[in-house]
């Protein structure tokens, strides 16, 4: 339909663009409509950890068993040349400066190794393979890889934001933090458990990114009252997404003693301490009396002699 409209619009025109007839332009558009969906579907997802080696494959089937010495292979990212293999020899003349001494090609597996992957290396890479026929290079294969870089977050850690003994009905103020991770996390959730019941609490999550390293730091704060005379365990859960899962902190156990428990302790330990003091005095009195009797006996024996 697009070509028919184009033909009607330029019915009396023989050439649409220099050197190209209307029919040739239509054929070009038809090829584009057929091939573009296939190109989009051939993008391969690749993951690599920060500062590790990323492996980007050309996915070249090489059904003709063509020798790599008969081919030219280019790896590109946007408009930058990442790597080049010129008839079996790796060339570095045209490489972007950021990739010099950071790439090498596994000739047997048609795979590019990107060393020390960084956050800025994320993006789409294209492998182009050319073969020379009748003196002219011809593209015989292309493929694309989408590189995602991952950096592990530290285990979330809970810290109390106040000192001293917590009293009943007072607010417990906590913070939970995790740092040095990538990509951007989804959310941080608090888990509060007591009496075999657990509830989730969603609070504002502060996410910041380092301007240089591009790594993320995450902090969430919690302010709650906890029931007295009951052990309460509090944890925080960092959600990293469906593919990366979650990280959980070491639980923090809090138990606040109510006034009645304190009074019971006073009522119990008060008499107990009094009894201990009385027993100590009696023992001291007995020991002193025994020492006096022993001293009197020794004096009588001396006089008899």
UniProtKB/TrEMBL annotation:
It comes from the Eukaryota. One of its GO terms (cellular component) is external side of plasma membrane. It is a single-pass type I membrane protein. The chain crosses the membrane at residues 21-43, 268-288. InterPro entries: CD80_C2-set, Ig-like_dom, Ig-like_dom_sf, Ig-like_fold, T-cell_Activation_Regulation. It holds the Pfam family C2-set_2. Keywords: Cell membrane, Disulfide bond, Glycoprotein, Immunoglobulin domain, Membrane, Receptor, Signal, Transmembrane, Transmembrane helix. One of its GO terms (biological process) is positive regulation of T cell proliferation. Residues 37-143, 156-236 form the Ig-like domain. It is found in: Cell membrane. PANTHER family: T-LYMPHOCYTE ACTIVATION ANTIGEN, T-LYMPHOCYTE ACTIVATION ANTIGEN CD86. This is CD86 molecule.
């Amino acid at each position: 339909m697009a070509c028919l409209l184009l033909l009607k619009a330029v019915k009396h025109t023989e050439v649409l663009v220099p050197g190209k007839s209307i029919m040739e332009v239509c054929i070009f558009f038809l090829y584009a409509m057929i091939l573009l969906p296939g190109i989009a579907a051939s993008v391969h997802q690749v993951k690599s950890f920060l500062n590790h080696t990323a492996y980007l494959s050309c996915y070249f089937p090489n059904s003709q068993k063509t020798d790599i010495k008969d081919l030219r292979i280019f790896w590109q990212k946007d408009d930058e040349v990442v790597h080049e293999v010129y008839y079996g020899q790796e060339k570095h003349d045209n490489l972007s400066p950021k990739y010099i001494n950071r790439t090498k090609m596994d000739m047997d597996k048609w795979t590019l190794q990107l060393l020390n992957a960084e956050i800025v290396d994320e993006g789409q890479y294209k492998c182009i393979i050319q073969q020379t026929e009748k003196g002219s290079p011809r593209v015989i294969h292309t493929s694309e890889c989408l590189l995602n870089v991952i950096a592990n977050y530290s285990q979330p850690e809970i810290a109390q934001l106040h000192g001293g003994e917590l009293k009943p009905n007072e607010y417990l103020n906590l913070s939970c933090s995790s740092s040095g991770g990538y990509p951007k996390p989804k959310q941080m959730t608090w888990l509060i458990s007591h009496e075999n019941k657990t509830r989730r609490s969603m609070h504002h999550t502060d996410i910041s990114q380092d301007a240089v390293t591009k790594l993320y730091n995450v902090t969430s704060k919690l302010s709650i009252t906890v029931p007295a005379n009951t052990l309460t365990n509090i944890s925080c859960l960092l959600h990293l997404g469906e593919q990366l899962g979650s990280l959980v902190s070491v639980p923090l156990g809090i138990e606040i003693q109510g006034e009645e428990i304190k009074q019971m302790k006073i009522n119990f330990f008060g008499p107990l301490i009094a009894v201990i003091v009385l027993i100590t005095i009696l023992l001291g009195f007995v020991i002193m009396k025994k020492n006096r009797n022993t001293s009197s006996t020794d004096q009588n024996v001396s006089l008899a002699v």
